[in-house]
C-alpha cells in the first residue's frame, strides 16, 4: 500500500539532491529576480495532516442542518463574479454575478441587470480582485460590498440585503483598477481604488511617451458611486488600504521606474508606499483647487513630487500587498521581491506631512519573513500572517517583537511557518480589516493545487485552504478546490449580514419596470396585459406557482417584445424563471420580484415559454405560448 502521497514521494526523491516540485515552481516563478533559497520545512504527510486537523481548537464540522458562523465573500477573479461561502464548512452558498454574464439569473440579459451594467455594455468579462464590505466606525455595517474590475477599469457595488450588484462605475482616464479598499472611519464615505498602469494624457494616439504618462489614485462616493476625485501620482499603483482615523490611505508602487519591460520594473532597489492625505485632498477639492482631464469633470489634484497630498515612503523593491493592522497602528507593505515586510507607523504620518520627520522615519520595523511576501492579515492579538508565494508558506510573526528587533533588541519575532499548497496569493483572517479582528480562522488562497485533487485536465482548480489560528499554533484543517480565480476574500460574522428573504414590492432593483408599468397604466401585482406601442410590445404577467398569469400572447414578426414577470408568491424560496425557447431569453424571478427581458420576435410561429426554476410539483406544466404572426 502506498503510504505517502505524490508530494511526499517527490520530496523523498528530490529532497537531498535538489529542489522539490513545490520549491521548483516557486523558484522559477520569479526566475532571475531572486535566487532559490535552501530547502524549507518538511512537508506534511496525509496522516500527519489529519492528526493536526483533529487537534485543531476550532471545530470545522458544520453538521447537516446547522449554519456556518461566518460568511465568506470570495472574489471570482477572471470569472468576474463573487462567491458567497459558509465558513468554516467552506460550502459555497451563492454566486453573485457582477462583471460576467449569468444565464441562471439572467444577469446581462434582463433589463434590470442592463440598468446596472449599461444598456450599451460591450464587456462580457471582468477581473474581480478585491471584495470589501462597508464599515461604520471601523466595523462591518453589512450594507454594501464593493469590488474592482481590473480588466475594464470598473468598480461595482453589491447590495448585501439582496446580494445583487446595483451599481457599476467606470473610472475615467485610467487603465486597470486593481487595489481597492474602503474608508473605515467614521464610515465608508469613500471607496479607494488604484489604477495600476500609467498611460499618456491625453491618450489619443498623439503621444506614446512615458514622460506624458501617469496613473491616478481614485476615490468614489460610496452612496452615489460617482468618482469624487482623482490624484495623479509618481510611478504606478498596486494595492491599497485605509487607516482607522479616516485621514490616510496608502498604496504600494512596484514600478517607480515607469518601465514598460520586466527588467525595467526591477531596476530600482527601492520603490515606495505612497501615503495619501485624504483630508487635505478632500479639502482642496472642496475649495475648487483642482483641474479636470479630457471630457471628464472629475476633480483631479496633482500628487506628484513634493505635494501637500502625498508622501512617498521608500520600501524594498516591487512591494505588493498593503495592509492596515486592526489596532490602527500600522500600514504594512509586503516585499514581494524582498523577503521583508515594511511596517509604517500611522501615528508618525502627521509629522511626516508637516515635514517634521524624514520619510524613512515612519518605518518602525522591516522583518525578514521568507521568499515572496504578498499579503498580510492579522489575528487581533498582535500577530501578523504573511503569505510567502515562493516558499509556499504562511509566516506568522509578532508585530511588536519585529519592532523591538528593528530597534536592536535580541528578540525573535517569527512565531511559526506553515506549508500551504501551493503558492499563496491573498490570505485573510476572520474580520481582520476591522476593529473586530477575532483571530479564529485564516483562509489562504493558493494559486496552484497541482496533485491535491482528482485531475480535471490541464486547467487545474486553485486550492483555498482553511487554517485554524485560534491557538498558539496555526493548523491546516481544510482544502477547498476553487474555479478561476478567487483572488481575495473576506470573512464576516454571520450576524453582521442581514438579508431579505423575499423582495419588498418597492425595491429599487426593479424601479425602471415599475416606472414603465405606471406609464402603461399597469398594476404589476395584478395585471396580465399586452400593451402595443408601435412595434414595441410590452407583455405584463404575474406568476403564482405553478402558473403564469398569461399563458398565451400574440405579436407580429419583427416586434420588439419586453416581458415583465411579477412573482406574486410570498413564500421564501419559491423562485420562478422565465425562458423563451430558442430566443436566448432566460431570467430569475424570486418571490415578490419583478424581472423583465427584451428580445425581438424575429420568427413567425408558435414559441413556447416556460418556468425554468423548479418551483412546484407542477413546475413542468408552468408554461405558455407566444404566437408570432408572419409580417
Ligand atoms: S493582488 S495575489 Cu490583485 Cu490582491 Cu495580490
Ligand atoms: Cu415556476 Cu418553476
Ligand atoms: Ca520596481
Describe the structure in your own words:
- By secondary structure, this protein is mainly β.
- The protein has a domain at 521-629: Immunoglobulin-like.
- Helix content is 11%, strand content 38%.
- The chain is built from 9 helices and 40 strands.
- Strands 8, 9, 10, 11, 12 and 16 form a 6-stranded mixed sheet that branches.
- A hairpin with a 4-residue loop joins strand 23 (383-388) and strand 24.
- It is globular and about 85 Å long.
- Residues 1-42 have low confidence and may be disordered.
- Dinuclear copper ion binds at residues 545-546, 576, 611, 613-615, 619, 622.
- Its EC number is 1.7.2.4.
- One of its GO terms (cellular component) is periplasmic space.
- Cu cation A1 binds at residues 576, 611, 615, 622.
- Pathway: Nitrogen metabolism; nitrate reduction (denitrification); dinitrogen from nitrate: step 4/4.
In a few lines, what is going on in this structure?
With 631 residues, the chain is mostly beta strands.
Overall SS class: mainly beta
The distinct ligands, each listed once, are:
(dicuprio-$l^{3}-sulfanyl)-sulfanyl-copper, dinuclear copper ion, calcium ion
Number of strands: 40
Major sheet summary line: 6 strands, mixed
The CATH C-level class name of the domain at 521-629: Mainly Beta
Output mean pLDDT: 93
Q: End-to-end distance, in Å?
A: 73 Å
CATH fold-level assignment of the domain at 521-629: Immunoglobulin-like
Quaternary state of this entry equals: single chain
CATH homologous group name of the domain at 521-629: Cupredoxins -  blue copper proteins
Runs with pLDDT <50, length 5+? 1-42
The number of distinct helices, counting runs of at least 4 residues, comes to 9
Strand % is: 35-45%
- Give the overall shape, derived from the CA principal axes: globular
Identify the CATH architecture of the domain at 521-629. Answer: Sandwich
Q: What is the rounded Rg? A: 27 Å
Helix content: 10-25%
Amino acid at each position: 500500500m502506498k503510504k505517502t502521497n505524490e508530494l511526499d514521494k517527490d520530496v523523498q526523491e528530490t529532497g537531498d539532491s535538489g529542489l522539490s516540485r513545490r520549491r521548483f515552481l516557486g523558484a522559477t516563478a520569479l526566475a532571475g529576480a531572486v535566487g532559490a533559497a535552501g530547502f524549507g520545512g518538511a512537508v506534511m504527510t496525509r496522516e500527519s495532516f489529519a492528526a493536526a486537523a483533529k487537534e485543531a481548537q476550532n471545530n470545522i464540522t458544520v453538521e447537516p442542518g446547522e449554519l456556518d458562523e461566518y460568511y465568506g465573500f470570495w472574489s471570482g477573479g477572471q470569472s468576474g463574479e463573487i462567491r458567497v461561502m459558509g465558513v468554516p464548512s467552506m460550502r459555497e452558498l451563492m454566486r453573485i454575478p457582477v462583471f460576467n454574464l449569468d444565464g441562471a439569473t439572467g444577469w446581462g440579459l434582463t433589463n434590470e441587470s442592463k440598468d446596472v451594467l449599461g444598456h450599451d455594455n460591450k464587456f462580457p468579462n471582468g477581473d474581480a480582485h478585491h471584495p470589501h464590505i462597508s464599515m461604520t466606525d471601523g466595523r462591518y455595517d453589512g450594507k454594501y460590498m464593493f469590488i474592482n474590475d481590473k480588466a475594464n477599469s470598473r468598480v461595482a457595488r453589491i447590495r448585501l440585503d439582496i446580494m445583487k450588484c446595483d451599481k457599476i462605475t467606470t473610472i475615467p482616464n485610467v487603465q486597470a483598477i486593481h487595489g481597492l479598499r474602503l474608508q473605515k472611519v467614521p464610515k465608508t464615505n469613500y471607496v479607494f481604488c488604484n489604477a495600476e498602469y500609467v498611460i499618456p494624457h491625453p491618450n489619443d494616439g498623439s503621444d506614446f511617451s512615458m514622460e506624458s504618462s501617469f496613473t491616478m489614485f481614485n476615490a468614489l462616493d460610496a452612496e452615489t458611486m460617482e468618482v469624487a476625485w482623482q490624484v495623479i501620482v509618481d510611478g504606478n499603483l498596486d494595492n491599497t488600504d485605509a487607516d482607522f482615523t479616516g485621514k490616510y490611505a496608502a498604496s504600494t508602487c512596484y514600478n517607480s521606474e515607469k518601465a514598460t519591460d520586466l527588467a525595467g520594473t526591477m531596476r530600482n532597489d527601492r520603490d515606495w508606499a505612497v501615503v495619501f492625505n485624504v483630508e487635505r485632498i478632500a479639502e482642496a477639492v472642496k475649495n475648487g483647487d483642482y483641474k479636470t482631464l479630457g471630457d471628464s469633470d472629475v476633480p483631479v489634484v496633482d500628487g506628484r513630487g513634493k505635494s501637500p497630498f502625498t508622501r512617498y515612503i521608500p520600501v524594498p523593491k516591487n512591494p505588493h500587498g498593503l495592509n492596515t493592522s486592526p489596532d490602527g497602528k500600522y500600514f504594512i507593505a509586503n516585499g514581494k521581491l524582498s523577503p521583508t515586510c515594511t511596517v509604517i507607523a500611522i501615528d508618525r504620518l502627521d509629522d511626516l506631512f508637516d515635514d517634521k520627520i524624514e520619510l524613512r522615519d515612519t518605518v518602525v520595523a522591516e522583518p525578514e519573513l521568507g521568499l515572496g511576501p504578498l499579503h498580510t492579515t492579522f489575528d487581533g492579538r498582535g500577530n501578523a500572517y504573511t503569505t510567502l508565494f515562493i516558499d509556499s508558506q504562511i509566516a506568522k510573526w509578532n508585530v511588536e517583537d519585529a519592532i523591538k528587533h528593528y530597534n536592536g533588541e535580541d528578540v525573535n519575532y517569527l512565531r511559526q511557518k506553515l506549508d500551504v499548497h501551493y503558492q499563496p496569493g491573498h490570505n485573510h483572517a476572520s474580520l481582520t480589516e476591522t476593529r473586530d479582528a477575532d483571530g479564529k480562522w485564516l483562509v489562504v488562497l493558493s494559486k496552484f493545487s497541482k496533485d491535491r485533487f482528482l485531475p480535471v485536465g490541464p486547467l487545474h482548480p486553485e486550492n483555498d485552504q482553511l487554517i485554524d489560528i485560534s491557538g498558539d499554533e496555526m493548523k491546516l484543517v481544510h482544502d477547498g478546490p476553487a474555479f478561476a480565480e478567487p483572488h481575495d476574500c473576506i470573512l464576516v460574522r454571520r450576524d453582521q449580514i442581514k438579508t431579505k428573504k423575499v423582495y419588498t414590492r418597492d425595491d429599487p432593483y426593479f424601479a425602471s419596470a415599475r416606472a414603465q408599468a405606471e406609464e402603461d397604466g399597469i398594476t404589476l401585482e395584478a395585471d396580465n396585459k399586452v400593451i402595443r406601442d408601435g412595434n414595441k410590445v410590452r407583455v405584463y404577467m404575474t406568476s403564482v406557482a405553478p402558473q403564469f398569469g398569461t399563458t398565451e400572447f400574440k405579436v407580429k414578426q419583427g416586434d420588439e417584445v419586453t416581458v415583465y414577470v411579477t412573482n406574486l408568491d410570498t413564500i421564501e424560496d419559491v423562485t420562478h424563471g422565465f425562458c423563451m425557447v430558442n430566443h436566448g431569453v432566460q431570467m430569475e424571478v424570486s418571490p415578490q420580484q419583478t424581472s423583465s427581458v427584451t428580445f425581438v420576435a424575429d420568427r413567425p410561429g408558435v414559441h413556447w415559454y416556460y418556468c425554468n426554476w423548479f418551483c412546484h410539483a407542477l413546475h413542468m406544466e408552468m408554461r405558455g405560448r407566444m404566437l408570432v404572426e408572419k409580417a
